[in-house]
Structure prediction request, 71 residues.
Amino acid sequence: MSTVIADKYYTVTEAAEIIGVSGARVRQLIAAGRIKAEAVHNRLWIIPAKALDRFVEEDRPTGVHADRRSG
Prediction:
């Protein structure tokens, strides 16, 4: 499926595919603190699988913008 590093991390592109948004949106969610990620290099972010799972499992009501959720 993907190039998950040691089955524990996703790239921004892979995370975007998993949650069905663009890579730019994933970067916005990282910047907003909604998805935890680690900077590995200048512009390279990796997202721990647990952090992405946590984001996916959040109660996300239809029509509610991700940045407007309580949490």
Summary: The first strand starts at residue 9 and ends at 11. The first helix runs from residue 12 to 19. The chain has one domain: 9-60.
